[in-house]
Amino acid sequence: MTDTQLLQSYLLRLADSDMILGQRLCELCGKAPALEEEMALMNVALDLVGQARNWYEYVAELEDQGRDADMLAFRRDAHEYRNLLLTEQPNGDYAVTMARQFFFDVWHYHTLQSLVNAPDERIAGIAAKALKEVTYHLRRSSEWIKRLGDGTEESHRRMQDAVDLLWRFTGELIQPDEVDQQIAKAGIGPDPEQLRDDWRGMVKAVLQEATLTPQPDDAWMYLGGKRGEHTEHLGFILAEMQFLQRAYPDAKVW
Amino acid sequence: MYAQLVETGAKRVKSLDEMSPEERAFQERIDAEIKIEPKNWMPDGYRQTLIRQISQHAHSEVVGMLPEGNWVTRAPTLKRKLQLMAKIQDEAGHGLYLYSAMETLGADRDEEIEKLHNGKAKYSSIFNYPTLSWADIGTIGWLVDGAAIVNQVVLQRTSYGPYSRAMIRICKEESFHQRQGYQILLDLMRHGTDEQKQMVQDSINRFWWPALMMFGPHDDDSPNSQQSMAWKIKRKSNDELRQMFIDQTVPQLEFLGCTAPDPDLKWNEERGHYDFGEINWQEFYDVLKGNGPCNRERIATRKKAIEEGAWVREAAVAYAEKQKQRAAA
User: Fold this and answer.
1) Which residues of B touch A38 (CB under 8 A)?
2) Which residues, numbered 137 to 176 in chain A, qualify as contacts with chain B under a Cβ-Cβ cut-off of 8 Å?
3) In the record, what terms sit under GO molecular function (chain B) (predicted)?
4) CATH number of B16-328
């Protein structure tokens, strides 16, 4: 893998994860538990899809094969997607939506904290803008974990169930593969051990405050998103998201 | 325009001589174009009419998110997706400040939402029509937000201060939405394939008449208009607003290179306005009574969201309560 290919692979993970989680949040339009949440969810989704666009544009430039950001988002099939499996999991109830968001936000926040110092100015710039947004996402999702975990009996039960349900998808966030390691070595992405400790530290602190129990560090983990092996959900997400581009392949403008 | 057929409870408008001293002072204030503020005395009919109108308007913003939400997961490009998401977010925001304006009148948001869910409160008839193609997102921005603006520009001068100020803020955002909607259609017509152009014309054919219905019944069939006009809640009649909308919209329609599904639509030199055909009022009243294509689905979706979110809201209240106790301890 050349350095450019390595960078593309890494950035696509960020772009695809942002895109797919943004898409999942779009599904909640008109279905949030309160009007204030309606606004907040759409706001987070808007940030994520905006970030995805920034990353896709850069990937398309690096790739230099005539594909643009839209082609990357709307014309790749599931096996070409590199998003974290966590982001493609269904919305479930609000506890699941928030647990998914929180696990992702902690990872996202710490990842971006490294990327803002990347020697590549383009990456540093996109990350700096994203970090401001994600700092808010993390604060918001942490608050919801605490509210639901330490709210009523029912909300506590639902929140604990959500943590247990999604825990198996969190290994992928903190178990580095070859790409993660190379990117860290190049001084771009976070040091894998540091990221793992930061993620676990923050997640455990918030869960504890929320009177929730994490699963053990050696729990079984479901991996694969970063190499294009997804859960069954992604195909349906893309079928919906890419419908127009697929149904009208000759259309040049929308 | 998001409020139709708002009840005033008045059979006819009282003259100044028939009014009590309080009512008279109130009416004179209105006639002098001084805004009514939450702490001012107001007749109960005025208060109730405003609560009905503002809540209807707020409900429309919220229900109006659903036909757009139907396409936000299928928007064709990143740019269009982001635009639509931002528009939907604005609408949730409009809902919020309209409910706040309504609460200044002593009404309760939850109670008014309950009325929406049990069929006692209305929302604009337009949102009971389905969005069947991507072009509908353009058409809604152009025609539906366009019709809303014609009404809301006038409502910026409405007599109740908080409502008037909410309208000023909302109008700015709606104009932006309308331009974006029109741009979607224009791009499809200018640079699209034949299939895409067909998509636009089909969408206009379906939304044209429902958009005209947004202005409500003819003035002669609008029993509440007179009182609303006297109170300057309403500033122009339904038919006047509808005519304004048509006059400004037809040139835009022609610029698109599309047609309206109305053989009687033509410029009348003498009147200085466009003539147009008769609206199918039976359809209008059917939709208002709950028998439009999507009435049941729209309300069912909103009810489900609020019902299924009950445990979330309860948890938030319980947590806030615990935090307060901890702070006090």
Assistant:
1) 62, 65, 92
2) 146-148, 150-152, 154-155, 158
3) phenylacetyl-CoA 1,2-epoxidase activity
4) 1.20.1260.10
Rounded-to-integer distance, Cα A33 and Cα A28, Å: 10
Provide the H-helix boundaries in B12-160: 21-31, 44-63, 65-72, 78-103, 109-117, 135-139, 145-155
Q: Does B312 touch chain A (CB under 8 A)?
A: yes
Q: Report DSSP letters for B85-105, one per residue.
A: HHHHHHHHHHHHHHHHHHHTT
CB contact under 8 A, B312 and A70: no
Q: pLDDT tens digit string along B291-306?
A: 999 999 999 999 999 9
H helices within B134-193, ranges in order? Answer: 135-139, 145-155, 161-191
User: Between residues 290 and 309 of chain B, which touch chain A (CB distance below 8 Å)?
Assistant: 301-302, 304-306, 308-309
Confirm whether A24 is domain-assigned. yes
Does residue B152 carry a pLDDT above 80? Answer: yes
pLDDT digits (tens, 9 = 90+) for B181-230: 999 999 999 999 999 999 999 999 999 999 999 999 999 998 788 899 99
Query: What's the mean pLDDT in B74-102?
Result: 97
pLDDT at residue B1, rounded to an integer: 45
Tally of domains in chain A:
1
Say whether B319 and A243 touch across the interface (CB within 8 A): no
Contact state of A253 with B188 under an 8 Å Cβ cutoff: yes
Give me the residue spans of the domains in chain B: 16-328
A–B CB contacts, 8 A cutoff, strictly below: 142
Taking a contact as any Cβ pair under 8 Å apart, which residues of chain A between 93 and 112 contact chain B? 93-94
Matching residue, tokens 């729209």:
B298
Is residue A252 included in any domain, yes or no?
Answer: no
CATH number at residue A202: 1.20.1260.10
In a domain, A44, yes or no: yes
Average pLDDT taken over every residue of chain A: 97
| B216: alpha, beta or left? (left if phi > 0; alpha if psi -120 to 50) | left
Identify whether A125 is part of a domain: yes
| Domain ranges, residue A84 | 3-247
Chain B residues in contact with A154 (beta carbon < 8 A): 311, 314-315
